[in-house]
Design goal:
- The protein is mainly alpha-helical.
- The protein contains three helices and no strands.
- It is elongated.
- About 5% of the residues are buried.
Length: about 70
């Protein structure tokens, strides 16, 4: 069972809360990556891992936003 599979079973209220948590975590990772790059002494592998985690969060955020946004038939 993947992370997105687990999201399918949650209610909209739970997803809204998780969406805010994921967005904050995404911002925090962005700030951490920028700080590591600015310092210049950071480990390249650590930065790559943080960027990968940030991309996974971005996918979760997009999935939740799509699920919470009703389809509009034009």
């Amino acid at each position: 069972m993947t992370g997105l599979d687990k999201l399918e079973m949650k209610t909209d209220d739970v997803l809204r809360v998780e969406l805010q948590v994921f967005k904050q975590e995404h911002r925090d990772l962005d700030e951490a990556i920028e700080a590591l790059i600015e310092r210049g002494t950071s480990d390249v592998l650590t930065i790559k891992r943080l960027k990968k985690k940030k991309l996974l969060l971005k996918d979760k955020i997009a999935y939740i936003e799509d699920r919470l946004t009703p389809d509009i038939i034009a």
